[in-house]
Amino acid sequence: MFVLMAAAEVAPYARTGGLGDVLGALPRFLKRRGVDVAVVMPGYRCVRRGDVAWEPTEWDVQVPISDRWVSAPVWRTEMRDGVPVYAIVADQYFDRAELYGEGGQAYTDNAERFAFFSRAVLDFVGALGVPDILHVHDWHAALVPAFLRADSARYSWGSSVRTVLTIHNLAYQGSFWPLDWHLLCLDHRYFSFDAFEAWGNINYLKAGIMFADWLTTVSPTYAREIQRPEYGCGLDGALRYRSARLTGILNGVDYEEWDPSSDPALPRPFRVDDLGGRVAVKASVQREFGWAADPNTPLLGTVSRLVAEKGTGLLADIVPELLRRG
User: Fold this and answer.
1) Residues 207 and 317 both lie in one domain
2) Which of 91, 134, 201, 286 counts the highest number of beta carbons within 10 A?
3) How far apart are CA 216 and CA 222, in angstroms?
4) CB 169 within 8 A of CB 199
5) How far apart are the first and last CA of the chain?
6) Which domain holds residue 226?
7) Average pLDDT for consecutive 10-residue bins of the chain (326 residues)?
Protein backbone atom coordinates (compact mmCIF):
# COMPACT_ATOMS: atom_id res chain seq x y z
CA MET A 1 0.00 0.00 0.00
CA PHE A 2 1.27 3.46 -0.93
CA VAL A 3 0.10 6.40 1.20
CA LEU A 4 0.90 9.98 0.21
CA MET A 5 0.41 12.55 2.97
CA ALA A 6 0.07 16.28 2.38
CA ALA A 7 0.25 18.93 5.07
CA ALA A 8 1.36 22.51 5.66
CA GLU A 9 3.63 21.48 8.54
CA VAL A 10 6.03 18.61 9.06
CA ALA A 11 8.39 18.54 12.05
CA PRO A 12 11.26 19.23 12.24
CA TYR A 13 11.22 21.17 8.96
CA ALA A 14 8.28 23.51 9.67
CA ARG A 15 6.11 23.46 12.75
CA THR A 16 3.80 25.78 14.68
CA GLY A 17 1.95 23.17 16.75
CA GLY A 18 0.55 19.68 16.96
CA LEU A 19 -0.06 19.35 13.22
CA GLY A 20 3.67 19.41 12.56
CA ASP A 21 4.36 16.95 15.37
CA VAL A 22 1.91 14.41 13.96
CA LEU A 23 3.37 14.68 10.47
CA GLY A 24 6.85 14.24 11.88
CA ALA A 25 5.93 10.99 13.60
CA LEU A 26 2.96 9.24 11.95
CA PRO A 27 4.64 8.57 8.59
CA ARG A 28 7.64 6.98 10.31
CA PHE A 29 5.49 4.61 12.34
CA LEU A 30 3.46 3.65 9.27
CA LYS A 31 6.75 2.88 7.51
CA ARG A 32 7.74 0.59 10.37
CA ARG A 33 4.49 -1.29 9.87
CA GLY A 34 5.33 -1.97 6.26
CA VAL A 35 3.40 0.87 4.62
CA ASP A 36 5.05 2.66 1.69
CA VAL A 37 4.59 6.29 2.68
CA ALA A 38 5.76 9.70 1.48
CA VAL A 39 5.02 13.27 2.58
CA VAL A 40 4.66 16.48 0.58
CA MET A 41 4.73 19.98 2.08
CA PRO A 42 5.30 23.61 1.08
CA GLY A 43 8.93 24.66 0.60
CA TYR A 44 8.94 27.50 3.12
CA ARG A 45 11.99 29.69 3.69
CA CYS A 46 12.59 28.02 7.06
CA VAL A 47 12.49 24.59 5.41
CA ARG A 48 15.24 25.37 2.92
CA ARG A 49 17.44 27.43 5.25
CA GLY A 50 17.58 24.91 8.06
CA ASP A 51 20.30 22.34 8.66
CA VAL A 52 18.53 19.64 6.64
CA ALA A 53 20.04 18.49 3.35
CA TRP A 54 17.50 18.97 0.55
CA GLU A 55 18.16 17.84 -3.00
CA PRO A 56 16.43 19.17 -6.13
CA THR A 57 14.50 16.51 -8.01
CA GLU A 58 13.94 16.20 -11.74
CA TRP A 59 10.29 17.16 -11.30
CA ASP A 60 8.45 20.45 -11.62
CA VAL A 61 4.76 20.95 -10.92
CA GLN A 62 2.53 22.88 -13.32
CA VAL A 63 -0.53 24.30 -11.59
CA PRO A 64 -3.55 26.23 -12.88
CA ILE A 65 -4.32 29.29 -10.77
CA SER A 66 -7.03 31.65 -12.00
CA ASP A 67 -6.26 32.42 -15.66
CA ARG A 68 -2.59 31.41 -15.62
CA TRP A 69 -0.24 28.49 -14.96
CA VAL A 70 2.31 28.50 -12.15
CA SER A 71 5.32 26.18 -12.10
CA ALA A 72 7.61 25.22 -9.23
CA PRO A 73 10.43 22.74 -8.66
CA VAL A 74 10.22 19.91 -6.14
CA TRP A 75 12.96 19.18 -3.60
CA ARG A 76 13.48 16.01 -1.59
CA THR A 77 14.91 14.88 1.72
CA GLU A 78 14.33 11.97 4.11
CA MET A 79 13.12 11.96 7.67
CA ARG A 80 14.12 9.23 10.08
CA ASP A 81 13.22 5.68 9.10
CA GLY A 82 13.78 6.58 5.45
CA VAL A 83 10.46 8.31 4.76
CA PRO A 84 10.82 10.62 1.74
CA VAL A 85 9.66 14.21 2.21
CA TYR A 86 9.03 16.45 -0.80
CA ALA A 87 8.85 20.25 -0.74
CA ILE A 88 7.05 22.35 -3.35
CA VAL A 89 9.48 25.25 -3.79
CA ALA A 90 7.39 28.18 -5.01
CA ASP A 91 9.14 31.30 -3.76
CA GLN A 92 6.30 33.65 -4.67
CA TYR A 93 4.12 31.80 -2.17
CA PHE A 94 6.41 30.31 0.46
CA ASP A 95 9.64 32.33 0.68
CA ARG A 96 8.41 34.34 3.65
CA ALA A 97 9.35 34.98 7.25
CA GLU A 98 6.47 32.92 8.66
CA LEU A 99 4.18 30.11 7.54
CA TYR A 100 0.74 31.73 7.60
CA GLY A 101 1.14 35.40 8.47
CA GLU A 102 3.06 38.08 10.34
CA GLY A 103 2.30 40.57 13.09
CA GLY A 104 -0.85 38.76 14.10
CA GLN A 105 -2.30 39.08 10.59
CA ALA A 106 -2.72 36.29 8.05
CA TYR A 107 -1.07 36.74 4.68
CA THR A 108 -3.63 38.33 2.38
CA ASP A 109 -2.98 35.77 -0.37
CA ASN A 110 -3.41 32.64 1.75
CA ALA A 111 -6.34 31.59 -0.43
CA GLU A 112 -4.05 31.52 -3.45
CA ARG A 113 -1.07 30.05 -1.59
CA PHE A 114 -2.89 26.96 -0.41
CA ALA A 115 -5.03 26.52 -3.49
CA PHE A 116 -1.70 26.35 -5.30
CA PHE A 117 -0.33 23.85 -2.78
CA SER A 118 -3.32 21.52 -3.11
CA ARG A 119 -3.15 21.64 -6.91
CA ALA A 120 0.61 21.07 -6.73
CA VAL A 121 0.12 17.93 -4.64
CA LEU A 122 -2.18 16.49 -7.30
CA ASP A 123 0.14 17.43 -10.15
CA PHE A 124 3.06 15.86 -8.29
CA VAL A 125 1.19 12.56 -8.10
CA GLY A 126 1.63 12.33 -11.86
CA ALA A 127 5.40 12.22 -11.34
CA LEU A 128 5.64 10.30 -8.09
CA GLY A 129 3.05 7.64 -8.83
CA VAL A 130 -0.60 7.19 -7.96
CA PRO A 131 -1.09 6.37 -4.26
CA ASP A 132 -3.68 4.03 -2.83
CA ILE A 133 -4.53 6.64 -0.20
CA LEU A 134 -4.13 10.41 -0.26
CA HIS A 135 -4.11 11.50 3.37
CA VAL A 136 -4.39 15.28 3.82
CA HIS A 137 -4.34 17.34 6.99
CA ASP A 138 -6.31 20.45 7.97
CA TRP A 139 -7.57 23.24 5.74
CA HIS A 140 -4.26 23.98 4.04
CA ALA A 141 -4.45 20.68 2.13
CA ALA A 142 -8.21 20.09 2.29
CA LEU A 143 -8.70 21.13 -1.33
CA VAL A 144 -6.77 18.05 -2.49
CA PRO A 145 -9.77 15.68 -2.24
CA ALA A 146 -12.10 18.46 -3.40
CA PHE A 147 -10.09 19.17 -6.55
CA LEU A 148 -9.66 15.45 -7.19
CA ARG A 149 -13.43 14.89 -7.34
CA ALA A 150 -14.73 18.25 -8.59
CA ASP A 151 -12.11 18.45 -11.36
CA SER A 152 -12.02 14.73 -12.14
CA ALA A 153 -11.49 15.25 -15.88
CA ARG A 154 -8.11 16.81 -15.13
CA TYR A 155 -7.14 13.99 -12.75
CA SER A 156 -8.32 10.90 -14.60
CA TRP A 157 -6.10 8.69 -12.43
CA GLY A 158 -8.06 9.73 -9.33
CA SER A 159 -10.86 7.17 -9.61
CA SER A 160 -8.71 4.50 -7.96
CA VAL A 161 -7.52 6.73 -5.11
CA ARG A 162 -9.17 6.96 -1.71
CA THR A 163 -8.85 10.20 0.22
CA VAL A 164 -8.68 10.85 3.96
CA LEU A 165 -8.91 14.26 5.62
CA THR A 166 -7.73 14.59 9.21
CA ILE A 167 -9.09 17.58 11.13
CA HIS A 168 -6.58 18.57 13.79
CA ASN A 169 -8.31 21.82 14.75
CA LEU A 170 -11.74 22.71 13.40
CA ALA A 171 -11.37 26.35 14.41
CA TYR A 172 -8.96 26.94 11.53
CA GLN A 173 -10.91 26.53 8.30
CA GLY A 174 -9.41 28.57 5.49
CA SER A 175 -12.44 30.80 4.94
CA PHE A 176 -12.13 33.36 2.15
CA TRP A 177 -14.43 35.82 0.42
CA PRO A 178 -16.28 34.69 -2.72
CA LEU A 179 -14.24 36.95 -5.01
CA ASP A 180 -11.36 34.48 -4.62
CA TRP A 181 -13.35 31.80 -6.46
CA HIS A 182 -11.51 32.46 -9.73
CA LEU A 183 -8.32 31.12 -8.13
CA LEU A 184 -9.75 27.61 -7.95
CA CYS A 185 -10.40 27.08 -11.68
CA LEU A 186 -13.67 25.29 -10.96
CA ASP A 187 -17.20 25.61 -12.27
CA HIS A 188 -19.15 28.11 -10.15
CA ARG A 189 -21.77 25.46 -9.39
CA TYR A 190 -19.40 24.10 -6.74
CA PHE A 191 -19.78 27.31 -4.75
CA SER A 192 -22.76 25.76 -2.98
CA PHE A 193 -23.75 24.65 0.51
CA ASP A 194 -23.06 20.99 -0.32
CA ALA A 195 -19.54 21.72 -1.59
CA PHE A 196 -17.26 24.75 -1.03
CA GLU A 197 -19.61 27.35 0.46
CA ALA A 198 -20.08 28.01 4.17
CA TRP A 199 -21.78 31.09 5.61
CA GLY A 200 -21.36 32.99 2.36
CA ASN A 201 -17.63 32.36 1.98
CA ILE A 202 -15.38 29.85 0.26
CA ASN A 203 -14.38 27.40 2.96
CA TYR A 204 -11.45 25.11 2.20
CA LEU A 205 -12.02 22.82 5.17
CA LYS A 206 -15.73 22.51 4.35
CA ALA A 207 -14.82 21.46 0.81
CA GLY A 208 -12.53 18.77 2.17
CA ILE A 209 -15.22 17.56 4.55
CA MET A 210 -17.74 17.23 1.75
CA PHE A 211 -15.45 15.58 -0.82
CA ALA A 212 -13.06 13.34 1.15
CA ASP A 213 -13.84 9.63 1.23
CA TRP A 214 -13.17 9.47 4.97
CA LEU A 215 -12.71 11.96 7.80
CA THR A 216 -10.70 11.53 10.97
CA THR A 217 -10.04 13.71 14.00
CA VAL A 218 -7.57 13.59 16.85
CA SER A 219 -9.75 11.69 19.33
CA PRO A 220 -13.13 9.96 19.62
CA THR A 221 -14.26 12.70 22.01
CA TYR A 222 -13.37 15.46 19.57
CA ALA A 223 -15.18 13.62 16.78
CA ARG A 224 -18.37 13.76 18.86
CA GLU A 225 -17.88 17.32 20.09
CA ILE A 226 -17.43 18.92 16.67
CA GLN A 227 -20.81 17.62 15.56
CA ARG A 228 -22.47 19.86 18.16
CA PRO A 229 -23.17 23.57 17.55
CA GLU A 230 -21.16 24.71 20.58
CA TYR A 231 -17.97 23.08 19.25
CA GLY A 232 -18.69 22.81 15.54
CA CYS A 233 -17.36 26.27 14.58
CA GLY A 234 -20.17 26.63 12.05
CA LEU A 235 -19.42 23.31 10.33
CA ASP A 236 -21.29 21.00 12.70
CA GLY A 237 -24.05 20.51 10.13
CA ALA A 238 -21.59 19.33 7.48
CA LEU A 239 -19.94 17.02 9.99
CA ARG A 240 -23.24 15.52 11.07
CA TYR A 241 -24.07 14.98 7.40
CA ARG A 242 -20.78 13.07 6.96
CA SER A 243 -20.87 11.42 10.40
CA ALA A 244 -21.06 7.89 8.98
CA ARG A 245 -17.58 8.49 7.57
CA LEU A 246 -16.11 10.36 10.53
CA THR A 247 -13.80 8.54 12.94
CA GLY A 248 -11.96 9.83 15.99
CA ILE A 249 -8.49 8.32 16.41
CA LEU A 250 -6.60 9.30 19.54
CA ASN A 251 -3.29 11.03 18.82
CA GLY A 252 -0.30 8.99 19.89
CA VAL A 253 3.04 9.92 21.42
CA ASP A 254 6.47 9.17 20.01
CA TYR A 255 8.00 7.43 23.03
CA GLU A 256 11.47 7.58 21.50
CA GLU A 257 11.29 11.34 20.99
CA TRP A 258 9.85 12.04 24.44
CA ASP A 259 11.85 9.60 26.57
CA PRO A 260 13.58 11.53 29.40
CA SER A 261 15.97 8.65 30.00
CA SER A 262 17.61 9.22 26.60
CA ASP A 263 16.67 12.77 25.57
CA PRO A 264 19.90 14.56 24.53
CA ALA A 265 18.27 17.96 25.13
CA LEU A 266 18.10 17.39 28.89
CA PRO A 267 21.06 18.32 31.13
CA ARG A 268 20.58 15.06 33.00
CA PRO A 269 18.41 12.04 32.15
CA PHE A 270 15.87 10.55 34.54
CA ARG A 271 13.55 7.57 34.73
CA VAL A 272 10.40 6.66 36.59
CA ASP A 273 12.49 4.69 39.11
CA ASP A 274 15.12 7.42 39.43
CA LEU A 275 13.72 10.94 39.49
CA GLY A 276 16.88 12.63 40.71
CA GLY A 277 17.54 14.04 37.28
CA ARG A 278 14.32 16.04 37.42
CA VAL A 279 15.89 18.31 40.04
CA ALA A 280 18.73 19.15 37.66
CA VAL A 281 16.31 19.68 34.77
CA LYS A 282 14.12 21.97 36.86
CA ALA A 283 17.13 24.03 37.97
CA SER A 284 18.26 24.32 34.35
CA VAL A 285 14.85 25.64 33.28
CA GLN A 286 14.80 28.15 36.12
CA ARG A 287 18.24 29.47 35.18
CA GLU A 288 17.24 29.63 31.49
CA PHE A 289 14.48 32.10 32.42
CA GLY A 290 16.66 34.08 34.82
CA TRP A 291 15.01 32.77 37.97
CA ALA A 292 16.63 31.51 41.14
CA ALA A 293 17.30 27.76 40.98
CA ASP A 294 15.11 26.83 43.95
CA PRO A 295 13.89 23.21 44.21
CA ASN A 296 11.04 24.33 46.51
CA THR A 297 9.55 26.81 44.03
CA PRO A 298 6.72 25.27 41.99
CA LEU A 299 7.41 25.10 38.26
CA LEU A 300 4.59 24.45 35.80
CA GLY A 301 5.15 24.05 32.08
CA THR A 302 3.05 23.20 29.06
CA VAL A 303 3.54 22.98 25.31
CA SER A 304 0.44 24.80 24.10
CA ARG A 305 -0.95 27.90 22.50
CA LEU A 306 -2.32 30.39 25.06
CA VAL A 307 -5.91 30.36 23.84
CA ALA A 308 -9.21 29.78 25.64
CA GLU A 309 -9.81 26.59 23.68
CA LYS A 310 -6.87 24.93 25.47
CA GLY A 311 -8.28 25.73 28.90
CA THR A 312 -5.46 28.10 29.81
CA GLY A 313 -7.86 30.38 31.65
CA LEU A 314 -8.75 27.58 34.05
CA LEU A 315 -5.18 27.48 35.32
CA ALA A 316 -5.45 30.78 37.19
CA ASP A 317 -8.36 29.38 39.19
CA ILE A 318 -6.63 26.16 40.24
CA VAL A 319 -3.08 27.40 40.92
CA PRO A 320 -3.88 28.50 44.51
CA GLU A 321 -5.23 25.04 45.30
CA LEU A 322 -2.18 23.38 43.71
CA LEU A 323 0.12 25.53 45.84
CA ARG A 324 -1.88 24.77 48.97
CA ARG A 325 -1.47 21.05 48.36
CA GLY A 326 2.25 21.44 47.84
Assistant:
1) no
2) 134
3) 10
4) no
5) 52
6) 2-248
7) 98 93 96 98 91 93 98 97 97 97 96 99 95 99 98 94 98 98 98 97 99 98 97 98 98 87 90 85 92 87 77 82 80
